[in-house]
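Q: Second attempt. The first request was missing the SMILES, so the protein and magnesium ion are both included now.
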Amino acid sequence: MSIEVKDISYTYMTKTPFERQALRNVTVTIEKGEFVAIIGHTGSGKSTLAEHLNGLLTPSTGTVCVDGVNLNGKGDKVRSAKHKVGIVFQYPEHQLFAETIYEDIAFGPRNSGKSEEEVEKQVRKAMGFVGLDYDAFSTRSPFQLSGGQMRRVAIAGVIAMDPEYLIMDEPSAGLDPISRDAIFAQLSTVFKERDIAVILITHSMEEAAQYASRLLVMAKGQIAIDGKTELVFKEQRERLQEVGVDIPESIKITDLLCEKGLKLEKQAITKEQLVQYIKKAKGWS
Ligand SMILES: Nc1ncnc2c1ncn2[C@@H]1O[C@H](COP(=O)(O)OP(=O)(O)OP(=O)(O)O)[C@@H](O)[C@H]1O
Ligand SMILES: [Mg+2]
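A: Got both inputs this time. The predicted holo structure:
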């Protein structure tokens, strides 16, 4: 079970003076059960790739298949393949549309034919997931919220659909650190409990290092690097620099400590590893 992207290219506004090729011959397969982070310089094509994964955009050439079904087609099979893929958009206001938060989050589950009782259950669960109080928020308009609250409603709307492939395009933008950590903790639980795939687009190398086991690094509409997170950050530093991508702070601190004479047993890519290796090097544990 996977999303299989085969040799896709995509050009915006073809045959106009604003024509812009955003994807060039991208091939990648993401299996259920994987937690993948897509990173890359601004404008490298991350959101454009994401919008191909549930058929929102149709590739100019190439194919996208979800569990073996080509999304560039019609009929129930294609519709249900698209429904397996949930996207939290980069800009939450692009996602919200209903008069109340309840109606907005209820749209997905209701569309998939659930009873009203089940729909309400899903809405309550999804609001709990993102830390929005049901009684205080369900009847409010999604358009009278702060950016961070809108982001939470947008995430809840996608979570309520129980997607099998969950794509989140910079989900933590606009969230305060406490809400961000709470949402990621919930996400990690769902990821572990159910065999879903999570595709996280982020500019935070810390988020990528902490949660994703695989990294796709995009540059100029192509996948420049595809590999295990730890190996990419440790072994491809020059290439990352070339394509304008940073490395996690923990690696930089490991280097600094080494310069100052404290040699850690390994390079730490997360805060937790850094603490653990420092303790070991200092004989504190
Ligand atoms: N609606 C559009 N019309 C025309 N060009 C677009 C459109 N959306 C994106 N592009 C162009 O396509 C390229 C890829 O954009 P995309 O939004 O996929 O990048 P991104 O990696 O998600 O960037 P960011 O990190 O800033 O979100 C860019 O050159 C961008 O200018
Ligand atoms: Mg983007």
